[in-house]
């Protein structure tokens, strides 16, 4: 608790940017440090793991595992990437979305244009993966509706950055989890 914020930020960067984000989150949780460093994610994991023996299959852990596949000690990511990933997940927990909207958002981020994202969505025949509480089944939304819903998700992601940076917003987000530990901010 006595370590200054820049040092904590540096340690978080080391843990999450160098290909060990998933295992770092597990260790932080195991030793009770996740409650201090990332209280919303700690509360989410505690809630989702009630009655479960493993965190495999949880969207947050899968997002972190996939992030780890792309980076390593000699090829770290910029901290804005894992911060964006945490904001993305937070937005989905606070406002679950249609699985097709999530796919459209991810495709738009990956390809950079709406036309390419739509082309990807039209070609994609993979089985839908539904994460609870973050997503619900495919609705088959029309392109115009999908564009509007994807734009809305983008605004949710942007506003959920506050949960990572603003104490009052963080407290409001954690309140939804009655078993969450108290944190000092």
Automatic annotation (TrEMBL):
It holds the Pfam family PolyA_pol_RNAbd. InterPro entries: PolyA_RNA-bd, tRNA_ntf/polyA_polymerase_I. Residues 2-44 form the tRNA nucleotidyltransferase/poly(A) polymerase RNA and SrmB- binding domain. This is tRNA nucleotidyltransferase/poly(A) polymerase RNA and SrmB- binding domain-containing protein.
